[in-house]
Amino acid sequence: MSELLNRRLALLGEHSHLSLLEKCLHGIERECLRVTDEGRLAQTPHPEALGSALTNEQITTDYSESLLEFITPALTNPADTLDSLEKIHRFAYSKLGGEYIWSPSMPCPLPAEEDIPIAYYGTSNIGKLKYVYRQGLALRYGKTMQCIAGIHYNFSLPEAIWPVLKQTEAFEGSDRDFQSESYIGLIRNFRRYSWLLMYLFGASPALDASFLRGRSHQLEQFDADTLYLPYATSLRMSDLGYQSNAQADLTPCYNDLLTYTDSLRKAVATPYAPYVEIGTHKDGEWIQLNTNVLQIENEYYSTIRPKRVTYSGERPIQALMARGVQYVEVRCLDINPFLPVGIDLQQSRFIDAFILFCALQESAQLADCECGNASSNFLTVVKEGRRPGLQLSRNTSTVDLKDWANELLDTIEPISRLLDQSQGIDEHAKSLEVQRAKVADTSLTPSAQVLAAMTEHKEGFTAFSLRQSRTHAEYFRGRPLSVEDQTHFETKARESLAQQSEMEQSEEPVDFDTFVGAYQASILAISN
């Protein structure tokens, strides 16, 4: 363990500081496809009873009209965050009729590309902008890829912790600057070590063969309709998932907040020849917001993002540049198809300890070879993380995955104990032991268990996933919300519909072309 990490743990362990660790915030976003009783993509519109996808803060859609997104508030106790997520699921099931929520990350058998419905957000200019952005995604990456779902885990340390940690080093600058620099350091460490999360929690070793749309691949045949890799942990996060030639050169190595925002700023303002050739209009209709490397900064696909809550009309880059980093969004987590909401408290406890380790551990700038190692280790683990004797790259040599994983768990252990001490529990330590067992025995990992369940039941990916989806539907439908909670969600749904209607009726008469121009100018203004 590094001297800096030791010093910081000792400092946070002092009686006057220990309670700070209770004040970390946790928020979860879960994406999930709506499917029919046969396990096909639901072609129905977003259910009105769930409210407006544009203005409901807890239930919206992601890329497709069929891709739900459930959003919890940010809460100090992860048990409360998960309870909030479960309540959203229970409410959704009270309004889904005969439809199901698809249990894994990789999609159900999908219809033809043109039949995958893009999410619709109404007739306001912001609603149209969201729709055109998604049309652009379809052009750039195809609709199929946009139907992959995941768990996004939002985590922040309390603001009061940064002045305390700042004492541990000679930092010249404000507390806010130190906070942003520390979060960027956290992200660098996350890039170094996130392969461990993919080994422990990856849950997508197989997929429906139709997902590839005839593309060439190196996958093996599980049965007539299922492809897989025997040692894969997360095909979702492999090169079969989100691919982009335009983004290939856009790999910010997170040396500081300025270089990160700079690279995104340039990408949103720099034309990309193949997109220029397509143009922004076809037959007089918008088909993408612009012809640049990125239409908007959120298009940049990464395993983790620095974030700041935005004000109305403010763009993410503007918020980061104006007020610094407030929290991180971990984006690489698969949905665990064995768990009703796709994640549980035990996993959450370990992720908290892991992120805190990334924040407190020394984090030198990523040299070129380290950047390359981080990417290749991640890709190696998602495709063959359970392969016996698997070696990863560390500095200029190789190291056995299990040895390195155990070293990391040893370093995370005192952080788990400190979290437990701050809350008067032993759950973080228990979760750490569960992860140690997975390192010792690959059959305990979710990815291995998915393949084991498919083999045991003699079923392919779709049959397995539909069986799990039905099991979870039964779980949620058998636990209806209290009258009070049900009424709360129904009221919020109605209010969101009214809010969307009000937006559409009271909007100033600005034509959409002008609106998009102003939106584009907001980033160009920063660029200049």
Label this structure with key terms.
528 residues; alpha+beta; 7-stranded antiparallel beta sheet; Glu_cys_ligase; ATP-binding; Gln_synth/guanido_kin_cat_dom; EC 6.3.2.2; Glut_cys_ligase
Could you outline the blueprint of secondary structure elements for this entry?
Blueprint: H1 3-13, H2 15-18, E1 25-35, E2 59-61, E3 67-71, H3 78-95, E4 100-101, H4 125-141, E5 151-156, H5 161-166, H6 175-193, H7 195-201, E6 206-208, E7 220-223, E8 226-228, H8 257-269, H9 273-278, E9 281-282, E10 285-286, E11 304-307, H10 316-323, E12 327-333, H11 345-360, H12 368-384, E13 391-394, E14 397-400, H13 401-423, H14 427-440, H15 446-456, H16 461-477, H17 483-506, H18 512-527
Characterize the structure shown.
Helix 8 (257-269) crosses helix 18 (512-527) and helix 11 (345-360) packs across helix 13 (401-423). With 528 residues, the protein is α+β, with helices and mostly antiparallel strands. The strands form 4 sheets. Strands 1, 2, 3, 4, 5, 11 and 12 form a 7-stranded antiparallel sheet that branches. The protein has a single domain, classed as Creatine Kinase, Chain A, domain 2 (2-Layer Sandwich), CATH 3.30.590. It starts with a helix and ends with a helix. It has helices spanning 3-13, 15-18, 78-95, 125-141, 161-166, 175-193, 195-201, 257-269, 273-278, 316-323, 345-360, 368-384, 401-423, 427-440, 446-456, 461-477, 483-506, 512-527; strands at 25-35, 59-61, 67-71, 100-101, 151-156, 206-208, 220-223, 226-228, 281-282, 285-286, 304-307, 327-333, 391-394, 397-400.
